[in-house]
Amino acid sequence: MRPSSLLFMLLQLCCLQMLLLSRPACKLPGKWVETSVHLLHELGEPFPAKCSSVKGQVRFPDSALSAASGSQCRRTLVVLYQFLQGAGAMFAEYDLPEGEGGVTWNNRKLEHYLNLQYRLVDEHPCLNTTETSGVLTAYFSNVTAVVEQQDSAPCGWEALRRDLSWVLKSSVQQHRKCFK
Question: Which of 35, 102, 114, 128 could bond 98 through an S-S bridge, CB–CB 3.0 to 4.6 Å?
Answer without folding.
Answer: 102
